[in-house]
Design a protein that fits this description.
The chain is of the alpha+beta class and 251 residues long. It is 32% helix and 25% strand. The strands form two sheets. The protein has a five-stranded mixed beta sheet. The protein has a four-stranded antiparallel beta sheet with strand order 4-3-5-6. Strand 3 and strand 4 form a beta hairpin. Helix 1 packs antiparallel against helix 7. It is globular and about 65 Å long. The structure holds 2-(butylsulfanyl)adenosine. 2-(butylsulfanyl)adenosine (IVH) binds next to strand 2, strand 6 and strand 9.
Length: 251
């Protein structure tokens, strides 16, 4: 299953247009919708990975690459403490999970302090540090960096029934032992999206990880299927970016 990208919106007007576009597309297909339910979750500033579990065992982990073919980073992913290597017996026979590898702000600060103490180069931001750590040729090096993982979707499932909504999929993933972000919320319509966008923006500085926006996803999988994809982006989801953070420095 290809790893896709997301279209971006940058304003409330574009957000409203997204909601109208989704409703209109569904209406054209004969699906009457009054107010749509969406899931809103942080757009983590890390690296997308795909994890394949066979009979409950992690057998392969890959980066996104060009969306079809990524790098095999299985050994490095195995060193991430919060990432389950083995799922409970209730897990399906085949499961492909999508999520984001990132470095928490405090782990990034600690890493840079250690790099300085060792006389080594510091990293520009947590995303660069996470990318550098995941792409290490020696997994012992990755193990020394504290990476984190959040699951945000199921790409393939065999031997069990697929949940009906994104929210249920996240709950199911949590039951199988995957870390799920606690700031995911379900909201109604464009007004709900806008409220969640502002609420998460206010929390942004106090969150333990960096995010560059939020992602809106149509909650109902049957509706997602009706909406389908454009070339590389789903029609049922969009990223709403926050303005770049500004700070003063002495040059
Ligand atoms: S869903 C088909 N959810 O955004 C939808 N992506 O531009 C696939 N990302 O490469 C992605 N947080 O690395 C999704 N909560 C989230 C995300 C998220 C960050 C990244 C992901 C992907 C990129 C898409």
């Amino acid at each position: 299953v290809p790893m896709l990208s997301l279209n971006n919106v940058f304003s409330q007007t574009e957000l409203d247009a997204f909601d109208v576009r989704v409703s209109t597309l569904l209406q054209k297909q004969g699906i009457a919708v009054s107010t749509l339910t969406y899931c809103v979750e942080p757009k983590f500033d890390g690296l997308a990975v795909s994890l394949l579990y066979q009979n409950g065992v992690l057998v392969q982990g890959a980066t996104r690459g060009d969306g079809q073919r990524g790098e095999d980073v299985t050994e490095n992913l195995r060193t991430i403490r919060s990432l389950p290597l083995r799922l409970p017996p209730t897990a399906p026979t085949l499961l492909e999970v999508r999520g984001e590898v990132l470095m928490l702000k405090h782990d990034f600060a600690r890493l840079n302090t250690e790099q300085l103490a060792r006389g080594q180069k510091t990293f520009i931001n947590p995303r660069n540090a996470a990318a550098g750590s995941l792409r290490q040729l020696d997994s012992k090096m990755t193990a020394q960096r504290r990476l984190s993982f959040f699951a945000y979707g199921i790409a393939r499932l065999e031997g069990d029934t697929m949940p009906e909504t994104h929210e249920q999929a996240l709950q199911q993933l949590r039951q199988w032992g995957f870390p799920i972000c606690e700031h995911v919320q379900c909201v109604q319509g464009a007004a709900g999206l806008w409220q969640a966008y502002q609420q998460i923006e206010q929390q942004r500085d106090s969150l333990p990880y960096e995010l560059d926006g939020v992602v809106y996803k149509v909650n109902d999988f049957a509706l997602q299927q009706q909406l389908g994809f454009r070339t590389r982006e789903p029609r049922w989801a969009v990223a709403h970016k926050y303005p770049a953070q500004e700070a003063l420095t002495v040059v």
